[in-house]
Amino acid sequence: MIDFYNVSKNYGKDVKALSDVTLHVDRGEFVFIVGSSGAGKSTFLKMIMREEVPSSGSIVVDGVELNKMKPREIPFYRRKLGIVFQDFRIIQTKNVYDNVAFAMHVIGATQKDISRRVAYALNLVGLSHKAKSMPSELSGGEQQRVALARALVNRADIIIADEPTGNIDPVMSKDIVDLLMQINLIHKTTIIMVTHAVDLISQYDKRIVKIDKGCIVSDTDHPEVKDEADAKKAAEPVQEELPGKNNIGFYEDVNSDSGTESFIDSYGLPESSAEEVTEEASFASAGADSGSNEN
Ligand code: ADP
Q1: CA angle at residue 149 from 178 to 95, to 5 degrees?
Q2: Alpha-carbon radius of gyration of the chain
Q3: Beta bridge partners of 8
Q4: pLDDT for 72-105, tens place per residue?
Q5: CB of 40 shorter than 6 A to ligand 1
Q6: Is 131 in the pocket of ligand 1 (CB under 6 A)?
Q7: Which ligand 1 atom is the nearest neighbour of the CA of 44?
Q8: Is any ligand 1 atom within 6 A of the Cβ of residue 38?
Q9: Threshold 0.70, pTM exceeds
Q10: Coil, strand, or helix at residue 279?
Q11: How many whole angstroms separate alpha carbon 51 and alpha carbon 53?
């Protein structure tokens, strides 16, 4: 699904953000990317998003070589991606429903599709009851779930989550990662999640890629990362569970008789809208620039 072949990225003469990175991610795989600040994680994600191109090497996503992509093809490519950021980037002047619906409006989806899919996505993230709420009325964890609903509503093949738990408390953080896990499981969505939360991710049996100074220094559930998490845990006071932990109701929704699975199968963009999207609007649908695309 995603292949990096000997990818290096330099910024100017002095900064080597990535050095000779070779990596394969399977379709439907869940990969955590860890590493200290400045290690090259964002650069790695920007390459997948085709925001940056390699100085050398090549990147192939879903059979397409990104280096060779024409500018007019980029918006269509980005429709494959659902992007979730640390700072949520949801539109503060739109309610929960409209935030998620906006991602479909910008790609010209029909009203019928919008109502069905937005309802589905909000149900999936456990926010149906907050559809009319404004972002200011939501907790950080809830805002991030709106961002997740927006990332998946257009049936992304790949979800890129850049520090999605960076601004939320530990209990909600676990809910967000659990939710990503469920999306991965049910939709077979490939998920790449950058995080500093080694103690949180060490609870999951998923691949962990560690980047240091632009190089991959470990891959898979490497003991070093788990050791780091265990050491950190031992040094910290016990974290009390917050009261009223959210029940996102995910399993209940997916396994109900409400036709959810057949709805998953019926996902698909209206062909007629395919030519209309601009690069800017397409990227807004991925959540990258929502604030500036409201008008
Ligand atoms: P991380 O996401 O792991 O914190 P980054 O990928 O943002 O790391 O950065 C890797 C290195 O590249 C750092 O030294 C950073 O300062 C540098 N860098 C990132 N973006 C740019 C840029 N646009 N111009 C110059 N240097 C950059």
Answers
A1: 130
A2: 19
A3: 56
A4: 999 999 988 999 999 999 999 999 999 999 999 9
A5: yes
A6: no
A7: 6
A8: yes
A9: yes
A10: helix
A11: 7
